Amino acid sequence: MQTRIQPKPMPKQKRIKLTGKAYTELRKALHKRARGHCESCCKYAPLLDEDGQFDVFRCGHVSHIKSKGAGGDDSPENCLWECFYCNVLVRSWGCKK
Fold first, then answer.
1. CA separation, residue 11 to residues 8, 14, 32, 64, 69 (Å)
2. Residues 53-63: tens digit of each pLDDT
3. Distance between alpha carbon 95 and the CA centroid of its chain, in Å?
4. Which end of the chain has fewer CB atoms within 10 angstroms, the N or the C?
5. CA distances (Å), 84 to each of 11, 16, 41, 60, in order?
6. Distance between CA atoms of 89 and 35, rounded to whole angstroms?
7. In the CATH hierarchy, which fold is given to the domain comprising 20-92?
């Protein structure tokens, strides 16, 4: 009887998962890279509203190219700056523009 040698499983690559200040810095970097516009539809997508507050409907959002659930991370290379419409309606619900 032959014994098969099982290859060692590759260790999972540690994902970048940001919270707090680090996530805020990622948002700022993506906003700067996109020059304040949605990277999908080119509409204006500010970092904060006129009052300096985050408004979910008027401000830009971080969108992941490869979702976190599929192994994506919070690196700038895996993220897009998008308006509310593109982030929620198009990506999450699969609606067409």
1. 9, 9, 35, 23, 18
2. 888 888 999 99
3. 18
4. N
5. 36, 24, 11, 6
6. 22
7. His-Me finger endonuclease fold (3.40.1800)
